[in-house]
Amino acid sequence: MAGSRKLGRTSDHRKAMLRAMVTYLLENGKIETTVTRAKEVRSAAEKMITIAKSGDLHSKRQVLSYVTKEAVVKKLFDEIAPKYNETNGGYTRIIKTGPRRGDAAEMAIIELV
Q: Residue 2 above 60 pLDDT?
């Protein structure tokens, strides 16, 4: 996925981390992470939901190439995407939760609306 922030990782590591976080978000509905990561995850997750809304085989394969668990892809196509059929974008919400205790990094919860 396209993304401007490097998040202090090599490109492979960053891509793997974002894929894992997007998969987890779609699986569980919300994650707690840093604000910058949440913003990156939002962009990737919303793209996946938008692709899934068309519901055809091509879009299923596109999503499968990014999301790491097949069960999550099935859930995305069967439950999550149909919920947003009327909506264009804005499928996630980021709520800031204050600084992290260890290093005072600004934390946030990202969740599906």
A: no
With respect to residue 5, please indicate whether it lies within any of the assigned structural domains. Answer: no
Q: If you average pLDDT over residues 97-101, what whole number do you get? A: 95
What CATH number does residue 82 fall under? 3.90.1030.10
Q: What is the pLDDT of residues 79-97, one digit of tens each?
A: 999 999 999 999 999 999 9
Q: Are strands 30-34 and 92-99 parallel, antiparallel or unpaired?
A: unpaired
Domain annotation covers residue 4: no
What is the C-alpha separation between 71 and 79, in angstroms, rounded? 12
Cβ of 51: how many Cβ atoms within 10 Å?
A: 20
Structure tokens, 89: 């974008």
- Give the range of the structural domain holding residue 84, as residue numbers without chain letter: 11-112
Q: How far is residue 41's CA from residue 22's CA, in Å, rounded to a whole number? A: 6
How wide is the angle at C-alpha 11 spanned by C-alphas 25 and 50, nearest 5°?
A: 40
